[in-house]
Amino acid sequence: MARRPALLAGALAVGLSCAASAYADPAYEGWLLRMGDYETLANVWRADTDSGDGAQQERLADLFLGPHARAAKARPFEGVHNLYWAALRGRRGAVLRLADALDKGALGLRKRPDAARCWAQLPATFDARLACVRLTEFRDPKARLGCGDLPIARADGRPLDGADAARICVATGTPTLLEPGPPPGPETVRRIRAYARHGITLSVTGDVYDPAFEAYRDRFNRTTVAALEARHGRGYLERLEHEVDARASSQ
Are 143 and 127 in contact (CB under 8 A)? Predict the structure, then answer.
């Protein structure tokens, strides 16, 4: 089966969260802590964070940003990424820690007092947190989170629909279009690069038809197009498509 993008993988993972949570055993976790086996503990918690568990994302952030990060074998930027995910899901401790890091320019984040103030107000809704996301920046481009790296679920665990997911992409500065098709060939790769030069990610999602995902993709793309045209004027994307297709076919 053709691969779906990270956005769809995240949405499907939310539906599996109950199964993944079966790995969470407080007695076992306590034993791992007493043994100092932080690497295994991190792997246990990752099973839940992959399913969109905000509480575990916050716990992983504490582990990876604390004194046992090396023992836990944290991947580069994994601590601050989990902190960011947990904050986007409305976890109070993560929100306040993210605000403090932005105020100081710590944890690989760019110093942004305006973003710090936004998070410090403890935004209570998804829309309010998206406003803070728009202000949040990383110092190191390698640490930057694209929209496909962010959790595809609301704080209550409900999956985001296509419109909400697209709004996350726009808020992170990575507007994305989902396009059906087989794995990219040379012409599609040229189109992907051409869109990227305009700051747009073209994500090829596979050639297997699924009604639920088609509805998701339609809402996602409609939302992205509306955001791009609000910024660049009506008909912007249609003009860009003609330009990109003409260049791709002439090469």
Answer: no
